[in-house]
């Protein structure tokens, strides 16, 4: 019963001073955002939140997880996602909720009923503020993950060097996730360019260890399954010494010191295969 009276008192307070409260709320939040969001957009967002808060309290709910606050939870999640995408900080995002406490506090009379109502509202806004922070954090994680994927794709370009020859210039460390991207992009390029020769250039790879070698071998095997011969280029003296010291075997995979040497080898292979095909044709 006490909670019902508290909710009713809050509904009355929010209804009687709606315009004043929203105006002060917009001003307080707008100041914290340093004008990086237009007042028109901010007022629209906060009026929607205000209406949803009133609606939830009118249902008798006082806990953010209750059904009566489903709408405001949805609005806050959307607001948090927008703030995260726009580059606002977690504090600047959460203030959209917490500033309402500051706005309402001067309007309470200090009576036991008002104090109880304010404490109940304070707990509610704290819960909604935490919801906002969690939604913001999830969105930032999604953005960071998406950016990492984009950077990964940009760091593994596949280029056509010549008719029938594609190359993957690798820069940085080669790990399992990146190996998968390299495989996918290389195999797709073999199809798109109808290539039979692939060059994997590791000039930009700082070091080659057993794990990196295994990733390279997997990529070569995948390309061979598509009918393409592979050459590994960019074998610098330091890397060559490391490969020997570690006992890494590349088997029958051709290795070259420079991309130019690898391209020459690929073109020679294409020319040799062409002549062999012509000779077989003449014999038939």
Features:
single chain; 284 residues; alpha/beta; five-stranded mixed beta sheet; 10 helices; 5 strands
Write the layout of secondary structure elements.
Layout: H1 2-16, H2 18-32, H3 39-58, H4 70-86, H5 90-104, H6 112-154, E1 159-162, E2 165-171, H7 176-192, E3 197-204, H8 210-225, E4 229-233, H9 237-246, E5 255-256, H10 259-283
Parallel strand pairs: 2-3, 3-4, 4-5
Antiparallel strand pairs: 1-2
Largest sheet: 5 strands, mixed
Q: What's the gyration radius in Å?
A: 32 Å
- The side-by-side strand order for the widest beta sheet comes to 1-2-3-4-5
Q: Count every helix, treating DSSP H or I runs of 4 or more residues as helices.
A: 10
Roughly how much helix do the residues carry, as a percent range?
Answer: 55-70%
Cα-to-Cα separation, first versus last residue = 99 Å
Measured by DSSP, the beta-strand proportion falls in 5-15%
Average pLDDT number: 87
Structural class: alpha/beta
Q: How many β-strands, per DSSP?
A: 5
Shape: rod-shaped
Order of helices and strands: HHHHHHEEHEHEHEH
The low-confidence runs, each spanning 5 or more residues with pLDDT under 50, are none
């Amino acid at each position: 019963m006490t909670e019902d009276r508290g909710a009713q008192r809050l509904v009355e307070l929010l209804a009687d001073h709606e315009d004043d409260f929203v105006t002060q709320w917009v001003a307080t939040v707008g100041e914290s955002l340093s004008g990086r969001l237009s007042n028109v957009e901010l007022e629209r967002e906060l009026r929607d939140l205000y209406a949803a808060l009133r609606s939830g309290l009118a249902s008798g709910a006082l806990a953010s997880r209750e059904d009566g606050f489903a709408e405001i939870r949805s609005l806050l999640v959307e607001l948090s996602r927008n703030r995260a995408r726009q580059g606002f900080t977690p504090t600047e995002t959460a203030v959209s909720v917490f500033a309402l406490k500051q706005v309402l506090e001067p309007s309470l009379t200090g009576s036991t009923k008002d104090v109880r109502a304010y404490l109940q509202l304070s707990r509610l806004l704290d819960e909604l503020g935490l919801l906002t922070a969690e939604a913001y954090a999830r969105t930032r994680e999604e953005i960071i993950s998406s950016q990492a994927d984009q950077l990964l794709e940009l760091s593994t370009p596949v280029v056509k060097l010549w008719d029938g020859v594609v190359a993957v210039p690798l820069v940085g460390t080669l790990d399992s996730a990146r190996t998968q991207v390299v495989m996918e992009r290389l195999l797709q390029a073999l199809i798109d360019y109808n290539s039979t020769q692939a060059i994997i250039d590791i000039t930009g790879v700082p070091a080659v260890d057993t794990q990196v070698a295994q990733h390279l071998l997997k990529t070569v095997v995948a390309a061979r399954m598509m009918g393409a011969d592979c050459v590994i280029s960019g074998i610098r003296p330091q890397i060559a010494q490391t490969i020997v010291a570690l006992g890494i075997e590349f088997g029958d995979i051709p290795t070259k010191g420079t991309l130019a040497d690898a391209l020459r080898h690929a073109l020679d292979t294409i020319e040799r295969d062409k002549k062999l095909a012509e000779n077989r044709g003449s014999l038939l």
